[in-house]
Amino acid sequence: MNKHDEIKTLPKAVYVHPKCATHPNIPKPVETTVIPSRPLQKAVIVHEPQPIKTDLLNSEPQDAVPTSNSHPNAIHAYHFALQLFNAHPFIKIHSVLHIYQGSYYVPLTTGKGDQIIRLVSPIELRTYLNANYIKDMFAWLYTLVTNLASDQQLYFSSLHLNFSDGYYDVIKDKLHPHSHTMIFTSVLPFTYEECARSAKPADFEHWINRSTKGSADLKILLAQVMGYFLCENRSAKCMFILYGASNTGKSVFLNLLKAALGPDFVKSISLHNITANFRTVELVGAKANIFAELDHRKLPNIDTIKALIGGTDQVNADVKNGKPIEFINKAALLFSTNTLDCLGVADPGNALANRLLIIPFNEVVPPSEIDPRLLSRLIEELPGILYHFAIPGLHYLIGENFRFSRNAATQFKNSQQEKLLHALSFLKSSCSFESGLYEHTEILYNAYIYYANEKRIAALTKTEFRKILCNLHKYIDDIAPLTHSEKFRKNGFNQSGFRGIELRS
Fold first, then answer.
1. How far apart (Å, rounded) are the C-alpha atoms in residues 266 and 287?
2. Is the pLDDT of residue 90 over 50?
3. Domain 7-25+190-405, CATH
4. Which ranges in the chain are annotated with CATH 3.40.50.300?
């Protein structure tokens, strides 16, 4: 099958891509007709990961300190912690303490942890709980819990999808009952059964065909992205950017992802605020951070953002009314934008730019054709979208060792870098660089646009061109950094521009 065939044919073949068709790591594809003809597997566990060790600690605390709660009926924080330890599965995931709650592990960070402890505590003890007591109890719990989630356990779990009726093996097409031996930190707000029995999503098929202009490469990429967000594997080490003008479908895709993951596991923090005090810690326990817009401002704390993208790097986060914690971020980062100014996409040497997966949305829907009920109809189709689109996309992605099909994205990034090279060629051939020279930005940009039109090449925006001028010394050897001036007079005009450069006659 040619990779440019319609996506509606792909689920049966799990996106039969030339590269994928013979891949040794991809098992036999899942047929979309399998559910009607075959009952779901109810309780047969094929893979049994190493069980979590829960050896009970019966020794008394060596240095028992009086509890902050002085009520005569209150028990020591240690004994309370031991009761909880014996009653619930606990585990540390990248040094963060988690408690098992029926189908997944919940992080016991400050705030959320307090709420959970109050809910799981015996009713007769809840009136004795206060912040200091819980803090002491947490300290004992952290000492008692020695079970650490291994990388092998986390990776094995990430090849499954945790539905509300069990966890689904994507590779072997089997549904298993929930188990605390599987290390999930989220659960999807759907049953696998309702997804598997759903019809193909007709409205979604129409929308995705229009939004991608029928590009098979782009549809495959979007299927992979949706599948990636559903699972808990974060080894791709990239940040996702939906790029395009207004009314191109970006917000529809974002909101579909939010609905697919559920509100409990999605944060909406802007890229400029994600490293701010007390905001980074909000990512603990989240599956995704999805935010609608980027702005023009320079990004703060690039190193921290890179660490959040990495999936393996420890990140230090401030906790309100508590000690800072270190964690590994498992929230995939997704933003939509109509500007790439703050990301430095055109600069091939930009370390952050190299971690971006930019997905173009180019089909503008005229205002007269905008359907205000489109999103609600697509959300109604979500079970079918997951089964017929996202799960095959994840299956394909697993077979490729979580390497995305970047054809469409790479073409876009290459075009941006090509624009940069053409702009630099113009500046080198048409300008002089010496101290004492100066030129208005408007004059330089107009000359550049004339150059681009003459060469019949795509041009940078004025903002992108101005940013190159600010960093021109990084691209052209042996020139001093240009100095931007808000106003200076030249040829009878008083405008902003740069000193150290002049357009040749």
1. 6
2. yes
3. 3.40.50.300
4. 7-25+190-405
